[in-house]
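Example S7 (structure tokens).
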């Protein structure tokens, strides 16, 4: 799973003339935790580097930014 699966799927897409769309689903598991989380920009870059063509990142306000009570 993880980035290895993403890379394998990216190779399949290239071989078959497809683009790989990456959705932000479950990003909060990785980037919401301030003590040990990863910023979404870093996550998006890693997903692009592992073969994603398009990142569904959402908006600059709302679910991805701010305190949980405000979003």
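Recovered sequence:
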């Amino acid at each position: 799973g993880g980035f290895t699966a993403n890379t394998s799927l990216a190779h399949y897409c290239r071989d078959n003339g497809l683009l790989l769309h990456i959705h932000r689903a479950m990003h909060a598991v990785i980037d919401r935790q301030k003590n040990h989380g990863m910023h979404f920009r870093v996550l998006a870059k890693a997903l692009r580097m592992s073969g994603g063509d398009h990142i569904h990142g959402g908006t600059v306000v709302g679910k991805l930014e701010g305190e949980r009570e405000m979003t």
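Notes on this example. Residues 2-70 form one domain.
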